[in-house]
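During the reporting period, our protein records have gained a structure token line. One record among many is quoted in full directly below:
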Amino acid sequence: MTTKNVIGLIVGVLFFTFAAVFIGVTEGSYMFAGKCENVNTILTSSNIEDYKGKHVSIDIHGVIENYAETKHKTNGITTGTDQHYIIWLDDGSMISLRTKKKKNIEQLNSIMNDTWDYLDKKRDSGTDNPLYIEAEVSTMDSEIKGFYDEMLDYYGISDSNVVVHYVELDTTKTKGSLLGEFFAFVFFGLLCLAAVVLHFKKPRVKKAADDTFVPETYNPETYNPETTDEFGNSETFDSDDKIKLNGGSTDYDAFVSDSNDKIKLNGGSLDETR
């Protein structure tokens, strides 16, 4: 593993650890304890705008309109669609809600029909089937805010006669999705940490410099081979001696041999006596 890869893993450990800690601190009470205040209770003493980034619960009894939708696309392919609704709260104020769950959408549409039946005096009360939902209080997207104002204006609703909240109840960030993100960050953080630990614990291969074979090099100044003749006697040649066989010539300056030594050349023999 290269140094660059190790540094990348260490950065990964820090990133995933920070992300897991951040979610744990900001969403821990909701993820693990399920604690969240009810919107209608909050509005009796506080502003819902002060709860941005926190999770709240709400019992929905009135829906004015499904005023917009947001399509999520990846490489031009739609991967999901969110629906935006104007919710009529218990204190008479209006707030936007965002959801993508099919069951929620069906029930919100049903409540919307019951709401308009009540306003048109086709029924004596609102819906008989309110929807309990948990959501994160989030800032409204500027484009969605434009559609929100446009739909409110269409129905004659404004700040002059009704309290309008410019935050959105986002139900797409559920407890399950937050837990999934948290444990994913923990898992990948531990995975990167394990890779770093294994890298540093891996035994290193030591170079045995003393055992390295270094072949001897030929030096014509010091080369002095020793050979033996056919009788087992040794013959020593100086570096300047030359013997050419097979049709060549015998040229040497110093040749030491016993009187009975013989050098065979091309099937014959050369007797030399000292």
